[in-house]
């Protein structure tokens, strides 16, 4: 069975909501999922999973939060199968900086799949965006 680690950082709860929705879609497809909130204890061994889904909010003019950078450093290597999602707010920096942490993480991990960007909370049509993005991730494993 394919196993996913969803590691995410959240302060307001928006990124956690996205992580929970991604987890629900993966579990509904009978996949093995572990959800881990970055900074809440020992990091799961990334080697034990087939793929890493990492989520972050964007902070301070397009920056990646320190706890997410610390997570990447503590893992110590770039896993081969990484998918990235992020939450942000266009009122802080406009479209140019919107979910910039997700863009930076996708580049850092050399993700072959476009990062998911969510404005604040995954409500309404954005919930559908999360579901569609996650189903796309699943399809990559169906081959």
Can you describe this structure in just a few lines?
This protein has 143 residues and is of the alpha/beta class. Strands 2-1-3-4-5 form a five-stranded parallel beta sheet, with helices on both faces.
Structural notes for this entry:
The protein is of the alpha/beta class. The protein has one domain (3-142): Rossmann fold, CATH 3.40.50. It is 39% helix and 21% strand. The chain contains five helices and five strands, in the order βαββαβααβα. A five-stranded parallel sheet has the order 2-1-3-4-5, sandwiched between helices. Helix 1 (14-28) links the parallel strand 1 and strand 2 (32-37). The two termini are 14 Å apart. The model has no long low-confidence stretch (mean pLDDT 91).
Shape: globular
Note the gap between the termini. Answer: 14 Å
DSSP strand count: 5
Assembly state of the chains shown: single chain
List the secondary-structure elements in sequence, H or E.
EHEEHEHHEH
Spans of at least 5 consecutive residues with low confidence: none
Task: Let me know the CATH homologous superfamily.
Answer: Flavodoxin domain
Q: Over all CA atoms, what is the radius of gyration?
A: 14 Å
- Please state the structural category: alpha/beta
The count of domains is 1
Helix fraction bin = 25-40%
Average of per-residue pLDDT values: 91
* The CATH topology: Rossmann fold
Strand order of the largest sheet: 2-1-3-4-5
CATH architecture: 3-Layer(aba) Sandwich
Count of separate DSSP helical elements? 5
């Amino acid at each position: 069975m394919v196993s996913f680690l969803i590691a995410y950082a959240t302060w307001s709860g928006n990124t956690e909501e996205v992580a929970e929705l991604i987890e629900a879609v993966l579990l509904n497809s009978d996949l093995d999922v572990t959800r881990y909130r970055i900074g809440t204890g020992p990091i799961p061994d990334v080697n034990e999973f087939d793929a890493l889904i990492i989520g972050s909010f964007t902070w301070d003019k397009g920056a990646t939060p320190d706890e997410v950078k610390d997570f990447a450093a503590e893992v110590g290597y770039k896993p081969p199968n990484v998918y990235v999602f992020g939450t942000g707010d266009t009122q802080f920096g406009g479209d140019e900086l919107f979910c910039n942490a997700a863009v930076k993480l996708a580049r850092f991990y050399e993700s072959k799949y476009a990062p998911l960007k969510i404005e604040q909370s995954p409500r309404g049509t954005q919930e559908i965006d999360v579901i569609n993005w996650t189903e796309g991730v699943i399809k990559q494993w169906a081959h």
